[in-house]
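ok trying again, last paste got cut off:
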Amino acid sequence: MRPIPFLATLPMIPLLLTGCTADHDTATLPAAATIQAETLVVTPEQIGETYTTTGTLVADDRVEIASRLMGYIRDIKVREGSQVKQGQLLLTIDPTEIEAQRAEAEARVSQARARSVEARADFERYKTLFEQKLVAANTYTKAELENQVAEEELRAALATLDRVKVQIQYAEIRSPVSGVVVEKLRRTGDLANPGAVILTVENPSNIVLDTYIREDQLRHVQPGDELAVSVDAVGLRTTGVVTQVVPSGDAATHSYLVKASLHELNGARSGMFARSEFTTGTKWTVLVPDAALVNRADLPGVYIVDREGIARFRMVRVGRHIDGRTEIISGLAGGERIVIASDAPVRTGDRVADKPAPAAESRDLAPQ
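nice, full thing came through this time. structure:
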């Protein structure tokens, strides 16, 4: 009996392997299930088109307190965090030098007044003699000129005294606004120079948003426009009103400063990071309930139900969240039927049967 060649048996091996693989797949793949689910046919709708920026909350009433005098700081009555009222005494500057200037100015006034009285008396006397033709005209003219000079010197001395008296008032520095001391740059005993900041006071109840917009958006933003503002640090979601659009832009970034007041603060403070949304027009888009979105490998998508009632997963690109719904930037064009809630996890290939929408609340879709 002849042996069967080994090569003649090789064609049978792939057939056997193929048969085993097919049997294995059939045994492991679960059968498609029928899922009771709530579905929705999405349609495009018109919403506001927005432009998003970032900005910073700042105190609109922010004052840097400086001295108009040069002198040593005698006493600072506040510190960081102190609540102050308008007109409250904040600190005093040692008035020794300015007091000396006032004494000098008063002495000069006394001297100028005495010279003025004397010059006036001489002028009146020479005027009488000139009218009686007892003195020459040039003598009378000289007396008149000296009287005028003395009067001017007196007025100058009085003006200097008034200026010194005003400066003495600057030795006591009072708060021009009600607010909170947020910065203290000098201490008692330090030398205060005119114009150098000593304290900073701001009104925490008058917080505004400072943000910058691109030059191509400038035509869409005007004073009086409303905008949405969010401050993540305190969980604030509110609206605001544009109060100012600075007409001069930054030459380096080609952006323009926009200021906006907020309708509520809810604990927001100066210096916090904020986001703002300006409505710049309208556009057509698709919105789906947040519950309809499913994440697979960190990619968002929805389950589409085709004409045969079979569920298919489709990835989408999402945009803004608006009142419990999410904007779909790409992936849905409108007219698709999607799953928004189901009793069991939905998988691609499952058959979907519609069920009435829940009366009270909808359950989120549980993806697999």
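cool. DSSP finds three helices and 22 strands in the chain. Residues 1-29, 359-368 have pLDDT under 50 and may be disordered.
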